[in-house]
Amino acid sequence: EKGGWDSFMNKEIHEQPQAVADTLLGRFNLDGDLNLDEVRIDEEVFRSIDKIIVIACGTAAYAGMVAKYAIEHWVRIPVEVELAHEFRYRDPILNSRTLVIAISQSGETMDTLMALRHAREQGSRVLAICNTQGSTIPRESDAVLYTHAGPEIAVASTKAFVAQIIAAYLIGLYLAQVKGAMYRDEIRDIVDDLRAMPAKIQRVLDTQAEAVESAAQAMVDAQSFLFLGRHVGYPVAMEGALKLKEIAYTFTEGFAAGELKHGPIALVDSGEPVVVIVPPARGRNVLHSKVLSAIEEVRARGAYTIAVAEEGDEDVREYADIVFWRPQCPTLMSPLVDVIPLQLLAMDMAKLKGLDIDKPRNLAKSVTVE
Ligand code: BG6
Q1: What is the pTM (predicted TM-score) of this model?
Q2: Where is the SIS domain (predicted)?
Q3: How would you classify the pairing of strands 224-229 and 125-130?
Q4: CB 142 within 8 A of CB 120
């Protein structure tokens, strides 16, 4: 069933263009507007929503964090992202105008299930984003938007992550549509951007594998890895760090690049690998130069710097020991491509260490205990 791949993870990483395309499929009506009738929440209810809380664990929570940047920007309502196991025990503020989005690949994560039950008891509507038809979380939610990533077997989540981002973006755009928060054309332009992503992911898969492999070879013996990013690059950094700890058992930390000077830079010593997600340089993006100076800072202290940067971003070359190139795309789309080399890096490192890629020690695909 691995279809010729050496691991399920490798297969699933390569299925990501399809996972994105399939999750977009069938969610529009003939004149191109978003149609989420399948969700079966009244448009009126969507219109009344004034706050979103995402509850999830692990990779699904990072997908939620990515979506927070997009949805707040598009819909102009606050989005909180809460680890499901922390949520219920802090007396969260919920009411009927709060939309709770529960994200779960398996649909069986007990922490997420308990959190959504709590939210419903408080009178909030819960919309699940889930990859598994008929699983518990969608059954216990008010509604569900399925990701169509196909079965994910490897414990480390890959294609579910990109599909979750797509599903959450569709919910955000739908809210913008029903609330009139954006012009129709603006929404369509973003949908076009989304539709362009499968080909861009494919391009990363086709062109970046060698660079990733050489970074893995250079750094396989490193005791620890740091990942940093800003804006949507921040959750991507944390997801990259999570992949590496899950399957290569490397001690990793992902953090916001702006936080570097407030502590983490003390960790940087000669030979320390630091992976930096560099935002697009176009559109006078102020964050671009700020992230570049973060690379400069760590490099000055002897770090081995790995950058994920946009094709054509020549400035990056002089700062980075190695660059994983991302095809040009809007900032909010960049997580869908930036995560790919980080997944490959974790896989290559695990392979070089001779570890079981699909079944890392101490982990289960879905954790059905609290
Ligand atoms: C963890 C898995 O236990 O659960 C992660 O190892 C996953 O890969 C997390 O991201 C959440 O799982 P789910 O099924 O709720 O998305």
Answers
A1: 0.97
A2: 41-181, 215-360
A3: unpaired
A4: yes
